[in-house]
Design a protein that fits this description.
Largest sheet: none
Shape: extended
Number of domains: 1
Radius of gyration: 19 Å
Oligomer: single chain
Helix content: 40-55%
Order of helices and strands: H
Structural class: mainly alpha
């Protein structure tokens, strides 16, 4: 909390930050759980990907292997 300006480095703000982080983890887990069922619907509705392809982890090609 040392990098935060005065007024934002108290316990109530720390609780808000922790709560928002836990909420984002929960939403991400739920989204990954139901992603296989939602993929056909997303494709049918032509919804663009929110996360770009460079952000996701792609397996690196090893030299000498196809």
């Amino acid at each position: 909390m040392a990098y935060l300006p005065p007024g934002y480095n108290n316990l109530s703000r720390a609780g808000q930050r922790a709560g928002s982080e836990l909420l984002s983890i929960g939403i991400r887990n739920i989204a990954s759980e139901f992603a296989p069922e939602l993929a056909p619907i997303v494709r049918k509705l032509h919804i663009p990907r929110v996360v770009s392809t460079w952000w996701t982890q792609q397996p690196k090609a090893q030299p000498g292997r196809p």
